[in-house]
């Protein structure tokens, strides 16, 4: 069982890189420090690049879930600016 509460969700399955990271970053910017975002994304390039880029921004990756349908859910806690 996860020990976090999701505060917001962004679905980036309909956009292509690099817009995938941009949409995830904008959604994170709208959260308060410590809040949790779920990023629903396709496999492949988004699943490889978005988690890495978010981590490079200094945010905390809590979970990375393979949904079994070619999509993934990335769970991220926003770390202060």
Notes on the structure:
- The chain has 81 residues and is α+β, with helices and mostly antiparallel strands.
- It has one domain: TusA-like domain (Translation Initiation Factor IF3).
- It contains two helices and four strands, in the order E-H-E-H-E-E.
How are the elements arranged and paired?
Layout: E1 8-11, H1 19-29, E2 36-42, H2 45-56, E3 60-66, E4 71-77
Parallel strand pairs: 1-2
Antiparallel strand pairs: 2-4, 3-4
The SSE string, one letter per element, is: EHEHEE
Strand order in the largest sheet: 1-2-4-3
> Which overall shape is indicated by the principal axes computed on the Cα atoms?
globular
Strand content: 25-35%
Would you identify the regions where 5 or more consecutive residues have pLDDT less than 50?
none
How many DSSP E strands? Answer: 4
Q: End-to-end distance, in Å?
A: 29 Å
Alpha-beta classification: alpha+beta
| CATH-defined fold name | Translation Initiation Factor IF3
Number of helical regions: 2
Mean pLDDT: 94
Overall tally of domains: 1
Could you name the CATH class? Alpha Beta
CATH architecture: 2-Layer Sandwich
Radius of gyration: 11 Å
CATH homologous superfamily identity = TusA-like domain
The helix fraction, in percent, is 25-40%
Largest sheet: 4 strands, mixed
Quick structural summary:
The chain has 81 residues and is of the alpha+beta class.
List keywords for this structure.
81 residues, alpha+beta, Translation Initiation Factor IF3, globular
